[in-house]
Amino acid sequence: MSSFDVNGIEGVQLTKLNAVSDARGSFIKFEPAQQLLSNLDSFAFSINPKAGTIRGLHFQVEPYAEEKIITCVQGSIFDAIIDLRPDSKSLGRVATFELSSSNGMQVFLPKGIAHGFQTLTQDTIVHYCLTSKYSSESSYSINPFGNLGIAWPMLDFLVSEKDADGISLPFAAQQFAKSLGL
Q: Which CATH class for the 2-179 domain?
């Protein structure tokens, strides 16, 4: 595995996975327990039949803040992240990049990084490794169309009402800091 910088956002690791391929296809192995700082709690899949689907930007506050490892196992996504950590030099910084089954990239996000994506192809599947269970009381969505400077690549999109009506970046950062007792 080789790692790449992600717009100077502290702790975020974009990694290229090594694939072994032959006439039968490919085999890719990764070890989330070695990348995560906290114990692995669960796995999740996001199955997206339509290209242009936007999910996020999601995060959870303490005591359910979570580290995430995100991999696109089928199709392709335009990934977007935002640093909400009050003690971070990259607070408020946004980064975007592509994860796809063909580029073999995966991203590790520490606690306090909001995450969202837009599918670039039909039938896209995104795999998550998570260090905390889902808590509706601790879960937030940032409006992906706010003043974030994210240029979503597909103008024909599908987004949930909850995500479209999400909170602002300043309020999100405030909620995360509050959950840390700051």
A: mainly beta
Alpha-carbon distance 71 to 129, whole Å?
A: 9
Structure tokens, 137: 């009381």
pTM: 0.91
SS3 82: strand
pLDDT digits (tens, 9 = 90+) for 66-124: 999 999 999 999 999 999 999 999 999 999 999 999 998 999 999 999 999 999 999 99
For 175, the 3-state DSSP assignment is helix
Given a contact cutoff of 8 angstroms between Cβ atoms, the answer to whether 85 and 152 are in contact is no
Per the omega criterion (within 30 degrees of 0), is the bond before 63 cis? yes
To which residue do tokens 């502290």 refer? Answer: 10
d(CA 95, CA 150): 8
Please identify which residue in the block is written with the tokens 């995966």: 106
In angstroms, the CA 66 to CA 54 distance is 21
pLDDT in tens, 54-65: 999 999 999 999
User: So where are the chain's domains?
Assistant: 2-179
| Catalytic residue list | 58, 128
